[in-house]
């Protein structure tokens, strides 16, 4: 089970809406236990691709975020990005670029009137597992 605060959930939505029609992106920091992942902080980053169909996180911002996570006592538990016009599921490009089967991939869709957030595990470009989440 994944747990995220309503505040961080709302921050993700605000970022996605502000950056629309581009994809937004960021990192997820938190704590892992044997059967739960607690997202404790999100780190909104710049999509240097400036695209509505794909994203690349700014490397300098990524480095600073990882450094801050360590300072705060958290670990990298995943990343997230928005899909301005498509559903909350990994695209073929998302699957191809998924580099770590142990982290979360959050996808926030703005396709419908209400935003939809889902978290996935993506393993070896093929196996996609949708994970359950709730507000902490």
TrEMBL record:
Keywords: Hydrolase, Metal-binding, Metalloprotease, Protease, Zinc. Residues 2-136 form the MPN domain. The keyword Hydrolase applies. The keyword Thylakoid does not apply. It comes from the Bacteria. This is MPN domain-containing protein. It comes from Clostridium formicaceticum.
């Amino acid at each position: 089970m994944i747990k995220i605060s309503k505040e961080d959930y709302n921050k993700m939505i605000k970022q996605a809406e502000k950056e629309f029609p581009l994809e937004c992106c960021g990192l997820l920091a938190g704590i892992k236990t044997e059967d739960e992942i607690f997202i404790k902080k999100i780190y909104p980053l710049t999509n240097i691709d400036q695209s509505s169909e794909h994203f690349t996180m700014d490397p300098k911002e990524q480095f600073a975020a990882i450094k801050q996570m360590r300072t705060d006592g958290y670990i990298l538990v995943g990343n997230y990005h928005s899909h301005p016009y498509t559903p909350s599921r990994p695209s073929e490009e998302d699957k191809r670029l998924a580099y770590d089967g142990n982290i979360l991939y959050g996808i926030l869709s703005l396709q419908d009137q209400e935003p939809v957030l889902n978290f996935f595990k993506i393993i070896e470009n093929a196996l996609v597992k949708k994970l359950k989440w709730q507000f902490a």
